[in-house]
Specification:
Elements (H helix, E strand, L loop, with lengths): L11 H20 L6 H13 L2 E2 H8 L3 H13 L3 E5 L6 E5 L1 H25 L1 H23 L2
Antiparallel strand pairs: 1-3, 2-3
Length: about 150
Amino acid sequence: MKRTPSLPLPCMCSSFRRTSRALTQLYEEAMRPVEVRATQFTILLVLSRTGEVSQGQLGGMLAMDSTTLTRTLGIMSRHGWIAERPGRDRRERLLRLSSGGEAQLRRALPVWEKVQSRLRNQLGEQRWKNLLQLTNQVTDIATTLGESV
């Protein structure tokens, strides 16, 4: 199948969304054998690095809306990947990886690392680092601008 070349898009949002879809498809295809979705992997990875956090904090870290996060966490809880406990009040849920989540992350990491390596090799080390830094900056700016709307 011949790939259609990308059309340069003048809109930052459209460009990032298209890139996000393409990357998501790449990672999900690779991770299909370990039965983890890209969003689920991201949550596993973040929880492995942060330890216990509230659902609100997790949503903020991922710039993820509450409905999508709740739905994804529900699926992950049913798989036994997430452990939760009540927070200071009834509305707060504190989340952490369960032992099942740690095991799933260990299964998925080699697949993820392979995709990361392929992308890094295609981009080159300096562009890879620059792109990660730039996307983090754009996320911070966009979330800050969104707070003032």
